[in-house]
Structure formats: C-alpha cells, structure tokens
Write a structure and sequence with these properties.
The chain is mainly alpha-helical. 50% of the residues lie in helices and 11% in strands. Strand 2, helix 4 and strand 3 form a beta-alpha-beta unit.
C-alpha cells in the first residue's frame, strides 16, 4: 500500500480527473472541496488553470445567507474562480460590488 502526502494526492487526483475530460471547457467545484484543498496547501483552481489554460472554474454553491459567506466567497475569488454558482445572485453581486468600491474618505 502506498501513501502520499495530502497535497500530492490532491494534485494527482485533480490532474487525473482533468485529463479524463479532454473536451471540457469548464469545471464545477464544490465550495467545501475548494476550502479544504486550500487548507491542505493546494489551490485547485490555479492547478486546473495550469493544467488546462482557459478552462473556466465555477465554485458552487455560495449563498449570501450562508454563515461562512464572506470567507467562502473570498476563498473562491482569491483562488481564481471565474464564476460562482449561487441562489442569491443579487446579494452576492452587491457584496462583490461593495467590496470593490473605493473606500469613502474619512473626515
């Protein structure tokens, strides 16, 4: 029986799965998977982009009423996901717009 460090195992599994989908141009990753992979030292979004340049990566499902909403959205966007699947699109878009807006000057 062979054991790999978690990071190497995840990288190997992601590469194997991507190679099984030669014609795919997008992939959907669950937010819990992305968060755990990042904690384990692997950015699955960046790895997919390296293995398949131009492939769109979506992270699902991130809703504005989730208790971990700010951190899960930040993790997905920080990892490089181009798309977010959500049931609360207006509120997620509003949050992203507010986060991107320049800060108001204080007096």
């Amino acid at each position: 029986r062979r054991f790999l460090p978690v990071q190497l195992y995840l990288e190997d599994r992601i590469e194997t799965l991507i190679n099984l989908l030669p014609g795919a141009n997008e992939v959907y990753l669950g937010k819990a998977f992305v968060q755990q992979a990042l904690r384990d030292g692997v950015n699955p979004v960046a790895l997919i982009h390296r293995l398949r340049p131009g492939m769109l990566v979506d992270v699902w499902t991130i809703n504005a009423d989730d208790p971990d909403f700010p951190s899960s959205l930040a993790a997905a966007l920080g990892a490089g996901a181009e798309q977010i699947t959500t049931d609360t699109a207006v509120r997620v878009a509003r949050h992203i717009a507010q986060a991107a807006a320049p800060a108001e000057p204080t007096r």
